[in-house]
Amino acid sequence: MSEAESSTTINQRSSHAKITLAIASLAAMATYLDSSVLFVAFSDISDSYSGASTSTLSWVLNAYTITLAALLVPAGKLADRLGHRLAFLSGSFLFTSASMVCGLAPLIEVLIVARIFQGAGAAILVPASLALVMAAFQRERLPQVVAIWGAVGAFSAALGPSLGGIIVNGIGWRWVFFLNLPIGVATLAAAPRFLRETKDSSVRIPKPLGVLLVATAAGALSYAIVESDAAGWASSRTLFASLTGFLVLGVFVLHQRRTEAPTLDLELFGIGNFRWGMLAMLVFAMAFGAMFFGSLLFWINVWDWSVLKAGLAIAPGPALVALLAPQCGKLAGRIGQRPLILLGGVFLTISGLYWAVILTSDVGYWVGFVPPFILMSSSIALVFPQATSVAAQALPANRTGVGSAAIQSVRQFGQTFGVAITLAFVGTSMTAGDPYAVFGRIWWTLVVLGVITTACGWPLTTNDTD
Fold this sequence. Notes:
The chain has 466 residues and is mainly α.
């Protein structure tokens, strides 16, 4: 092959890889938007389904994230086995179809069930999209590329409340779901032409029991957290749900150790960077869910802001994430992900401490929220993409689908628990006592989670310590 022909081939591969990244990121963007876009629509959905309790309404948010988190790993294995492009197309179709049903749902029960199917579609789509991206690029470019893919997810999830506020105020909360339709159609049209099939026929498809166990455990624990405010932590209902969740989780671990086709390869946690990257992701995702949902509820319920004003007030955060995330990815390629994750945890801690100290009275948006939002948005750009990247890079080449699925699963579980904690702290307490003290519990939770995030990043070994 001549030098000119070789150069043309390299350019074609590079162009194809970039198109793959664009298609995969676009589809993943919609799934991450739907994990947070309804935060600001919570009150409007409640008005549409009068009589629905806070606990029932919480499942409009959590049914999606729990289903997504529970199915990500088995769906990742299925994608490894049957083909990443096939899984990507199937997941896109299911997610788009379920989104349409969500927008049309006449009853809250229909909406919740449709959110479950929407989460299932997202679970099939997400790991396949990352696996396709990782297969399209050379290994030396993976730190930057995976960070870009992760940054799209972080930006989309952060953008959700702002976009939701504009849509809900303008044309109603149902259009939040209809927005997914053109994205889904574009993805389904482009994917067959540009995406190349990759798979590993040696991967074992997991047993359904493992999926059922982990979903049951997450659902029970989320229910216990949400109900704790109304029923009390010592109530029989909360204790029973908590005990059930932990017992089922224990059974899940035992089942995974003994089955020949596990839902989650527990041996992956023997890889240091994968284990600590996953823990950092889990803890930071809890803070992410609590911070965004808590801020929106604070503005709407304490300061009596409109949905639109609340959504726009949070918009500078996603914009800053979009600006910083690519630069953080480049920096990680030079110094490693570890120092960025450590710094992100510190920023989260400072943000929570600022809110806990300053937000004890009506100090206003520019003093009370803008300074910590700058730090918090910076921490999102630092932690989410780099935790994804450092854990994904630690995976064996034949486990990228299931491994990347596990990473995103942990992120969704974390966000689910963050939302549940917020509802537990706020819940019925908004009608009694000092609202600033009520939300203060959320801000102090962010302080604790920031310290733990930093602690999880400390044992990582990346090229900054080689």
